Amino acid sequence: MRYAETDQMQVVYHANYFVWFEVGRCELLRSLGQSYRDLEATGVQLPVIDAHCEYRRSAHYDDDLTVVTQGRLVSPARVRFEYEVHRSADGVVTAVGSTEHAAVNAQGRPTRLPAHIQEMLV
Predict the structure, then answer these.
(1) 4 exposure class (CB count in 10 Å sphere: 0-12, 13-18, 19+)
(2) Are 120 and 85 in contact (CB under 8 A)?
(3) Residue-range domains of the chain with CATH
(4) What CA–CA distance (Å, rounded) separates 17 from 94?
(5) Dihedrals φ, ψ of 103, to 5°?
(6) What is the pLDDT of residues 49-96, one digit of tens each?
(7) Are 21 and 11 in contact (CB under 8 A)?
(8) Measured in Å, how far apart are the chain's first and last C-alpha atoms?
(9) Per the residue annotation, which of 7, 50, 62, 64 is the catalytic one?
(10) Is 7 annotated as catalytic?
(11) Tens-place pLDDT, residues 8-43
């Protein structure tokens, strides 16, 4: 945890969790063999249509945190990612959250996710 990611009390600023969720979902896609950049190259984008974070325990300056991310297909054109943020030193869950994404084309119109992405997230 960097000092810039905390408030005056050296507690993680709440909005940073959403930044870490993005990192988690990009890394999940990459681990499944499909980077977000590659997905966009197919003409599919995944804007966030819903986001939620439940703060369970404070994380502080210099805590080492791990984001565990899982994804699942909600429909052929929608995906949901779920996140748990753990403090590495003691395994305490500091936050849980989720984001839901609609698949859209370059014109912003709903579209189906590519078949191989659907298969990875079933």
Answers:
(1) exposed
(2) no
(3) 3-120 (3.10.129.10)
(4) 10
(5) -85, 125
(6) 999 999 999 999 999 999 999 999 999 999 999 999 999 999 999 999
(7) no
(8) 33
(9) 7
(10) yes
(11) 888 888 999 999 999 999 999 999 888 999 999 999
